[in-house]
């Protein structure tokens, strides 16, 4: 087992996270159906932090564990998590409008954008995931996912990576002791970065990384593309101390 250092050591030349980590929030012009999904359906599926800040599980039906996914992309991973784990309430975070619409289009029938009920155990967060982690009660999250994040591969952009010393502290505050943070990446620069950042902290126990998706981890379209392109994804599990 690879153990974290006994005392956190500062990384070289790591600047604080900027106010905004992500790049653009939209791609091509949205089609009318996509616009209706964002304007009419998303408000019913959005996690209301102001209402549920003290008791986030009250936002779901019969959930006894809270999981969070940062950056859900096409949403297939979030859907699989909810389908396979009937006791879990999931808050799935994504800021890119086109991929928000990709998930919403599967959850909401065409023509029912203003009437379809929200899924019982899935809520969306269409803003910076850090704001969600700051607002949730301390120790309220049972599992955190970061699947194939934007690697921001240039060294000068390292401050924009979600795996960052600032965000390790933020995640550790939200996660209960013993909770897992699962991360996957196919980018060699980001893989080395994850090892470096988590090797210089003492908030999480560092379990051995895997080069094949562990059992119980749903696949994603980004993973499939990486494998077709000849890249080897890596999968980490970090346990909150």
Task: Map the helices and strands.
Elements: H1 32-45, H2 49-52, E1 65-70, H3 76-84, E2 88-93, H4 97-107, E3 122-125, H5 129-135, E4 141-147, H6 165-174, E5 175-185, H7 188-198, E6 204-206, H8 221-228, E7 234-240
Parallel strand pairs: 1-2, 1-4, 2-3, 4-5
Antiparallel strand pairs: 5-7, 6-7
Helix pairs in contact: 1-4
Give a description of the structure.
The chain starts with 31 loop residues before the first helix and ends with a strand. It has 241 residues and is of the alpha/beta class. The longest helix has 14 residues, at 32-45. It has a single domain (32-48, 56-240), classed as Vaccinia Virus protein VP39 (Rossmann fold, 3-Layer(aba) Sandwich). The chain is built from 8 helices and 7 strands; from the N terminus they run ααβαβαβαβαβαβαβ. Helix content is 31%, strand content 18%. α6 links the parallel β4 (141-147) and β5 (175-185). Mean pLDDT is 91; it is low at 1-12. It has a 7-stranded mixed beta sheet with strand order 3-2-1-4-5-7-6, sandwiched between helices.
Summarize the structure.
The chain is of the alpha/beta class and 241 residues long. Helix content is 31%, strand content 18%.
CATH topology: Rossmann fold
Structural class designation: alpha/beta
Helicity, in percent? Answer: 25-40%
Strand order, largest beta sheet:
3-2-1-4-5-7-6
Low-confidence stretches: 1-12
Keywords:
single chain, 241 residues, alpha/beta, 8 helices, 7 strands, 18% strand
